[in-house]
Write a structure and sequence with these properties.
The chain is built from 14 helices and 21 strands. By secondary structure, it is α/β, with parallel strands linked by helices. It folds into 2 domains: about 180 residues, Flavin prenyltransferase-like (Rossmann fold); about 220 residues, CoaB-like (Rossmann fold), CATH 3.40.50.10300. The strands form 6 sheets. The protein has an 8-stranded mixed sheet with strand order 12-11-8-13-16-17-19-20, with helices on both faces. A 5-stranded parallel sheet has the order 2-1-3-4-5, sandwiched between helices. A two-stranded antiparallel sheet has the order 6-7. The longest helix is centred in the last third of the chain and has 20 residues. It binds cytidine-5'-triphosphate (CTP).
């Protein structure tokens, strides 16, 4: 259940901070991505290097460190995580959370997190039972903050009582339970069509005109929709990538084949994502026999292919349509123009010339452009993560339009 989940772990300054190293290790072993944020006091108990090594991610300790990415870190981190967990959660962080104080990275990021927040309180028995703490706990409970523990037992100060942080094993189990119960099936019953890969336009029985698209982005999108319960059809140009489980695949080769398979299925779809790199032109003549070389210059005559996305934009009724734009210059301006021209509801734009972006790579750097003119820039991330973010955005937009 934790596979691929993104978890923000806030570590505050309690003696139990050393146990959080085990939490990270257990979460990682179960396939989760963990982003650790430490308060200044926490760094007195455990060093950030320990968490960095165990989580294999940068550790956030201050609002004013040299940024690890170019974007506003506490906001982008908050937007990307599936849950946040504060363990150990001292009386101090609980008080800050209850009153909305944002005076360091952790308290600030927690104000921006929209996903569920779990806390594992850890403090001395007297502090735990103090009316101020109890009042804060009540406030947090009303706000749907989820509590894990604390438990009763021996405390670092030598006393026995309430306020001991739950064991890492139990904390991880609680998170697993949460994901089991709330297995996000937000696209359950929705029909989604995704196109992927680069079309091939044959010249003769052995040659074609193609492009560098690997299909990775489209396949990742099909997987991300399937993960949240959608009924996914993947119309794919030839690709080496394994078809994600639960996804129905329709193999095509040329732009015209893609056009007819997509158009035929369009009326019953709820969402269409056009990640494929469709050839804009095809040879006028497709030779039936292999073309022999003559040693002379060869001129090929090409005719335009139908633009599938444009056609969908003209025919759309209830469908939500997402286009892609791979650009080599002015990606945002070109992307916006393309989205309007093709009447898409959203466009994913990337500058394929950037390192870590574009064709064949496992990562990409994209911006989401929306029909209302707004945009969201994502930092470099894996294509699967981008795909999951895309699914989240579409789910949000669709739930807003229903309200
Ligand atoms: N697309 C399509 N049919 C085509 C060409 C493109 O459906 N014949 C779709 C792509 O799947 C993508 C979007 O249109 O979602 C943008 O593709 P892109 O190649 O960036 O745009 P073009 O319209 O071809 O514009 P240009 O090549 O001039 O940048």
């Amino acid at each position: 259940m934790l596979e691929g989940k993104r978890i923000l772990l806030g570590v505050t300054g309690g003696i139990a901070a050393y146990k959080s190293v085990e939490i990270v290790s257990r979460l990682r072993k179960k396939g989760a991505e963990v982003y650790v944020v430490m308060t200044k006091s926490a760094t007195e108990f455990v060093t950030p290097i320990t968490f960095r090594s165990i989580s294999a991610n940068p550790v956030y300790t201050s609002m004013f460190d040299e940024p690890k990415t170019w974007n506003i870190e506490h906001i982008s981190l908050a937007e990307q995580v599936d849950v946040a967990l504060v363990a150990p959660a001292t009386a101090n962080i609980l008080a800050k959370m209850a009153t909305g104080i944002a005076d360091d990275f952790l308290s600030t990021v927690l104000l921006a997190v929209k996903s569920p927040i779990f806390v594992a309180p850890a403090m001395n028995d007297a502090m735990y039972h103090h009316p101020a703490t109890q009042k804060n706990l009540g406030t947090l409970q009303e706000r749907d903050i989820r509590f894990i523990g604390p438990t009763k037992g021996f405390q670092a100060c030598g006393t026995e009582g309430d306020g001991r942080m739950s064991e890492p094993l139990d904390i991880v189990e609680e998170l697993e339970n949460y994901f089991t119960q709330h297995k996000t099936r937000e696209m359950s019953g929705k029909k989604v069509l995704v196109t992927a890969g680069g079309t091939r336009e044959p010249l003769d029985p052995v040659r074609y005109i193609g492009n560098f698209s690997s299909g990775k982005m489209g396949y990742a999108i099909a997987q991300a929709f399937a993960e949240v319960g959608a009924q996914v059809t993947l119309v794919s140009a030839p690709s080496e990538i394994a078809v994600p489980s639960g996804v129905e695949v329709v193999q095509i080769s040329t732009a015209e084949e893609m056009y007819s398979e997509v158009l035929q299925r369009f009326p019953e779809q709820d969402i269409v994502v056009k990640a494929a790199a469709v050839a804009d032109y095809r040879p006028v003549v497709r030779e039936t026999q292999k073309m022999k070389k003559s040693g002379q210059r060869l001129q090929l005559e090409l005719v335009p292919n139908p633009d599938i996305l444009t056609t969908l934009g003209q025919k759309k009724q209830h469908q939500f349509i997402v286009g892609f734009a791979a650009e080599t210059q002015n990606p945002l301006d070109n992307g916006l123009e393309k989205m309007k021209r093709k009447n898409s509801d959203m466009l994913v734009v990337n500058d394929v010339t950037l390192p870590g972006a574009g064709f064949g790579t496992d990562t990409n750097i994209v911006s989401f452009l929306f029909a209302n003119g707004s945009r969201r820039d994502l930092p470099k991330m894996s294509k699967l993560e981008i795909a999951r973010q895309l699914v989240k955005e579409i789910a949000n937009l669709r739930s807003k339009t229903k309200e």
